[in-house]
Design brief:
The complex is a heterodimer of chains A (381) and B (471).
Chain A lengths: L1 E8 L3 H12 L5 E4 L15 E2 L6 H22 L7 E5 L2 H16 L5 E3 L1 H7 L10 E5 L3 E2 L2 H14 L3 E3 L4 E7 L4 E6 L2 E10 L5 H6 L8 E10 L10 E4 L5 E5 L5 E5 L15 H14 L8 E11 L6 E4 L5 E5 L5 H18 L12 H5 L11
Parallel strand pairs in A: 1-2, 1-11, 2-8, 4-13, 11-18
Antiparallel strand pairs in A: 3-7, 4-6, 5-6, 9-10, 10-11, 12-15, 12-16, 13-14, 14-15, 17-18
Chain B lengths: L15 E6 L2 E6 L4 H7 L6 E2 L6 E2 L12 E4 L2 E5 L10 E3 L1 E2 L17 E10 L3 H12 L4 E4 L28 H13 L4 E4 L2 E6 L4 E5 L3 E12 L3 E3 L12 E3 H10 L7 E5 L3 H12 L3 E6 L9 H10 L3 E2 L2 E7 L6 E6 L12 E3 L3 E4 L3 E3 L2 H6 L3 E4 L4 E4 L12 E3 L9 H18 L5 H17 L6 H10 L2
Parallel strand pairs in B: 1-7, 3-8, 9-10, 9-14, 10-11, 14-27, 16-23, 17-18, 17-23, 18-19
Antiparallel strand pairs in B: 1-2, 3-4, 5-6, 5-7, 12-13, 13-14, 15-24, 20-21, 21-22, 25-26
Chain lengths: 381, 471
């Protein structure tokens, strides 16, 4: 039996960030268990985007702080958080009205979002077809980071520090002992005894909960993404979002490929299926070449699927849940990657100090059981 | 330079087409690829690579590597080795990663057409052609796609006579077998052949086909036969990416399909059957061959081929390796040396060859990517060339609607590929309820011939490796 102070299940961006901030707070015996490799779940399959342009106050506050943390993290563990902005293309008066309201709220919370004219949007990327664009919402502090640089950055950092990262180690049972004080985590790599247990298992959060007799209402929905052949980098810098074209999001990586997907989900039930579909390729090709017409000749190099691990109200479930010292960091509903640095910091605080100044009350998992669902966070991109 | 006088192949007179390369006019023959036409004009550097901006030229010449990418009519990253030169085309060299296309005309996306067939065959080489004909003869509707602008795969480049223990096709030249099969496919009322068409993915719903660089199609077929062949291997030495370092098969394609001389003098690496045969073909085409360099202590190919080469006077240097290639923007010189059996250079044995072509015949790897995408189980079997699919005795993979045949199922020779094609094509029709007893008999016959072909001590390892992937 291996004794640890904290065991985190899941080495996606969320689990890794929690471990990182716990170690920053001086917690020594932290283990992260991962059934695959770092980022092998939804993190490595994400669209790379990080934004603070949301419609509700708690998420804007969280993301404002998360972007600050992304910067610091990038410097410390060695990856680029490229603040090239998120550019929402707006086509109708209603959309402009909606985004003006959001801009006001965002500005009041310190997020410097601007509403741009089509010409100003074109200055940011002159390949966009702006013939029907009426305005655009732009926050220059939003950006993108390469998930594999991030996960391998954490991994290297842990190799030099005290956090134990156990990849290829699957959890197959959890037992509670001594009046729920001790959690015995059975894995393919031995058994762990811990007081604090964090479920950061993303799409598999429900399976982990079941091992403790809990029903954690997180369901995986397949979302697909693509990357194209590489071109000269720097031509599509912002993350471009278009509601007119299937809520598509696309941007260019540092290496030169166009990465992205479409926001409107496939019409299908929850699934663990990770195969990609031809119908998605059809939809994404139409959407991308409508937004940036010169992409119509572009070849898709890779195409993959990951999960949006959805909570009932589309907002994260963060905090202690039902069993003392059992924490959830799940149900991010498509925003787990971008939120990870602030979720990590906040949850570490909650575990060590039992409190945080962040709006974690809003994300308290108990809300679901009480039927106090929040309004869904803005889903696009 | 054109090959005008060839002892085996005749290159008929064809119309010329004119295209522009970097603003200069270039003449090509109709039915010739951009890369072949440029090579004929002495243009061997086709682009500068993405990151390091190193000169790159042809390598495989059949669309499998990405060495020959150029910008054509404003569209970047076009594989010029499989793209036909057309009148008025504008071809440009890429200097590093290309710009996103300059064609900003908005496309009004329509819906994507779906074609329905009983059997889709991917790859028009010996395995695919035989599979298509066998299934079509049984009454199946067949679509066959190939990325190249011609059918026949590597068969139409084989100027030598086939032999082997099987009586099937023995004594006939590969080119002749190829021509016969192509005719059989093109004239068959049940077969639609799509050249210059790439299968880009095997999805649950359908197979995606990118046709003639302009049309995307879906093919909804009852069964799919993957006969994508193999990709030529590369070895490591300094400057192995310089224009003039060509795959042996790439050289065959230039010479025997397009009638273009690959260069003036060649050093061949690899004394397996491919290396030996291509050396002989180079000599047929009037190209000097300095020597064959073989890293192993023994010649890997058939004795008869090696004996022929030696009789002509081309030395075969066993236990030798390539040290490096020299040249600024193309091959100028190759340095080789003898090694001690463990790969270490024996001092004092270094020598230099002033050649403009270094040909690599260092092995083939099955082109398994579509099978991987389809979800068919793969296994790594080095003696079969690398990753190959598990298959039952009727060439069906673990994904029940997907068959394999030919080199993609394990690198062998064209005769084996054709027999596997017959088995796969016939079984597909039986499973579809089209074929029957006659097809069962074809399968039994082909299986017997395969057994005979793979008999003997030379094929012991092959047989053992095949057993590993048999389900």
């Amino acid at each position: 039996m291996i004794k640890r102070d904290v065991v985190i299940i899941g080495a996606g961006s969320t689990g890794l960030a929690i471990a990182y901030y716990l170690s920053k707070q001086g917690v020594k015996d932290v283990t992260v268990l991962e059934k695959g490799y770092v980022g092998s779940g939804s993190t490595g399959r994400c669209g790379t985007g990080i934004r603070a342009q949301f419609a509700d106050e708690p998420t804007i506050k969280m993301m404002k702080r998360s972007e600050e943390n992304w910067n610091k993290l990038g410097e410390e563990i060695g990856f680029d958080f490229r603040q090239t902005g998120y550019l929402y293309l707006l086509y109708t008066e209603e959309e402009i009205e909606q985004y003006r309201k959001m801009k006001k709220l965002q500005n009041s919370l310190g997020v410097p979002t601007e509403i741009l004219s089509p010409a100003e949007a074109e200055e940011l990327c002159n390949l966009i077809d702006t013939s029907e664009v009426k305005a655009a919402s732009y926050n220059p502090e939003d950006g993108k980071a390469h998930p594999f640089e991030v996960t391998t950055g954490f991994k290297k950092y842990f190799q030099e520090g005290e956090v134990e990262l156990k990849e290829q180690t699957e959890v197959n049972g959890i037992k509670l002992e001594n009046g729920e004080k001790w959690k015995i985590v059975k894995t393919t790599g031995g058994n762990y005894r811990t007081k604090v247990l964090v479920n950061a298992a993303g799409g598999w959060a429900r399976n982990i909960g079941e091992m403790m007799g809990l029903d954690i209402p997180v369901t995986p929905y397949r979302h697909q993404a693509i990357i194209t052949e590489p071109f000269k980098p720097g031509r599509v810098e912002p993350m471009i979002i278009s509601m007119r074209h299937e809520d598509a999001y696309l941007t260019q990586t540092e290496r030169g490929g166009i990465i992205g997907g479409i926001g409107t989900p496939e019409d299908e039930p929850p699934t663990y299926e990770m195969r990609e579909t031809l119908s998605f390729e059809e939809r994404v090709s139409k959407a991308f070449s409508s937004i940036v017409p010169s992409l119509k000749h572009t070849r898709i190099l890779r195409h993959w699927a990951g999960y949006y691990a959805m909570s009932p109200d589309g907002n994260p479930m963060l905090g202690e849940y039902k069993i003392p010292d059992h924490y959830l960091a799940v149900g991010f509903s498509g925003h787990g990657y971008m939120m990870a640095p602030i979720v990590g910091e906040g949850l570490a605080r909650l575990i060590v100090d039992r409190k945080t100044e962040l709006p974690f009350d809003y994300y308290d998992p108990g809300r679901i059981d009480k039927g106090e669902l929040r309004e869904s966070a803005l889903q696009m991109g | 330079m054109r090959i005008d006088d060839h002892p085996i192949i005749s290159f008929p007179e064809r119309e010329t087409v004119t295209f522009s390369y970097e603003g200069e006019e270039v003449e090509a023959r109709e039915g010739e690829t951009i890369a072949a036409a440029l090579h004929n004009e002495g243009v061997v550097e086709l682009r500068k690579s993405g990151d390091q901006k190193r000169p790159r030229g042809l390598f495989c010449a059949i669309g499998k590597c990405s060495s020959c990418l150029m910008t054509v009519d404003g569209v970047p990253n076009v594989r010029t080795c499989i793209t036909l030169a057309q009148e008025g085309m504008e071809v440009e060299k890429q200097n590093g990663f290309p710009e996103i296309s300059s064609d900003a005309e908005r496309l009004e996306p329509g819906s994507i057409a779906t074609k329905v067939a009983d059997l889709l065959v991917v790859g028009g080489g010996p395995a695919g052609l035989k599979g298509a004909i066998t299934a079509a003869d049984a009454g199946a509707d067949v679509i066959i796609v190939d990325e190249n602008p011609f059918l026949g795969g590597q068969l139409i480049k084989q100027t030598h006579k086939f032999f082997g223990s099987s009586d099937q096709e023995a004594g006939t030249r590969g080119v002749e077998i190829g021509e016969e099969l192509i005719e059989g496919v093109e004239e068959h009322p049940n077969i639609e052949a799509m050249k210059s068409s790439s299968a880009v993915g095997i999805y649950e719903e359908a197979v995606g086909i990118y046709r003639n660089r302009e049309q995307f199609l879906k093919v909804d077929a009852g069964k799919t036969l993957i006969a994508t062949g193999a990709t030529e291997d590369m070895i490591t030495f300094p400057n192995n990416d310089l224009p003039g370092v060509y795959a042996a098969g790439g050289i065959q394609t230039l010479m025997n399909v397009y009638g273009v001389k690959p260069g003036d003098s060649v050093l061949m690496v690899g004394a397996g059957n491919v290396g030996l045969i291509v050396v002989y073909q180079l000599l047929q085409a009037g190209v000097d061959v300095e020597a064959i360099v073989e890293i192993a202590p023994e010649i890997g190919g058939y004795f008869v081929h090696a004996a022929k080469i030696r009789r002509i006077g081309v030395p075969i240097l066993t236990d030798h390796k390539v040290l490096e290639v020299e040249g600024e923007d193309r091959v100028k010189r190759v340095r080789i040396a003898e090694h001690d059996g463990a790969g270490e250079t024996i001092q004092g044995t270094e020598r230099e060859y002033e050649v403009d072509i270094l040909a690599l015949a260092v092995g083939l790897s099955p082109s398994y990517k579509l099978l991987h995408h389809a979800g068919s189980e793969l296994k790594f079997q080095p003696q079969l060339g690398g990753y190959v699919p598990e298959r039952d005795e009727r060439m069906k993979t673990s994904r029940k609607d997907v068959y394999v045949a030919g080199d993609v199922a394990g690198v062998e020779e064209a005769t084996a590929a054709m027999l596997e094609g017959i088995i796969a094509g016939a079984d597909a029709t039986i499973e579809l309820g089209i074929g029957g007893k006659a097809e069962d008999e074809l399968i039994a016959e082909a299986r017997d011939q395969l057994k005979e072909l793979r008999a003997g001590p030379y094929y012991k390892e092959l047989r053992e490796n095949l057993k590993e992937v048999q389900t």
